[in-house]
Write a sequence for this structure.
């Protein structure tokens, strides 16, 4: 490399920008239906437009962003039926990871999950804080399975559903049950009980589905 040549900034890479945008969608900074103006986004994120464009197209491929006639790129806004479909996909994928999760779980993993579960309970109905914690909790649980390809799809589903889960979290409805189910996941992992973990994950996703669908119907 010649003297004075500059290497691309890691923070300006398409992958890092995509991660930042996913977090903004998950945390409610970019709401469903938000029109994305590339010049404005580039200035706000302090990034170059070429990697930003690449990041936006990556998110469009994941379904988080849509290209609409006359409007350009917008944060995806899902229909009632599409949200229901998301939860059906979650039920097909997440409970079936239970055996591999238990096989890959170590004591320190359980301690970290316990810390996340405790912090979520302390946050109560603070939707923004819960959004990040809830994503991190489930992401860490499923990552224990080391099923790389499945995890990629599950991660995409979690990002897609989170804006609608956050709407429900703001209502404060039945959050104690959700916190109890997070604790149950930690407990059955500590017991290394894969069958129980499968049951808890199934009940957890079904309960979230029912609440999210009800919140979306009544918005």
């Amino acid at each position: 490399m010649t003297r004075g040549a500059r290497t691309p900034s890691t923070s300006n890479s398409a992958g890092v920008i995509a991660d930042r945008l996913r977090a903004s969608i998950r945390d409610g900074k970019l709401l469903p239906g938000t029109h994305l103006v590339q010049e404005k986004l580039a200035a706000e994120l302090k990034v170059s437009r070429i990697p930003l464009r690449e990041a936006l197209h990556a998110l469009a491929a994941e379904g988080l962003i849509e290209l609409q006639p006359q409007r350009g790129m917008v944060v995806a806004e899902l229909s009632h039926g599409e949200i229901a479909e998301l939860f059906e996909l979650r039920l097909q994928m997440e409970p079936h990871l239970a055996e591999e999760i238990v096989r890959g779980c170590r004591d320190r993993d359980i301690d970290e999950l316990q810390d996340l579960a405790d912090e979520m309970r302390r946050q109560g109905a603070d939707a923004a804080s819960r959004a990040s914690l809830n994503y991190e909790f489930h992401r860490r649980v499923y990552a224990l399975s080391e099923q790389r390809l499945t995890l990629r799809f599950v991660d995409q589903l979690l990002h897609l559903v989170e804006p609608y889960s956050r709407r429900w979290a703001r209502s404060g409805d039945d959050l104690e049950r959700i916190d109890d189910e997070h604790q149950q996941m930690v407990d059955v992992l500590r017991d290394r009980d894969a069958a129980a973990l499968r049951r808890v994950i199934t009940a957890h996703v079904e309960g979230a589905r029912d609440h999210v669908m009800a919140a979306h119907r009544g918005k």
Observations:
- The longest strand covers residues 65-68.
- The beta strands are 65-68, 72-75.
- The first helix runs from residue 14 to 26.
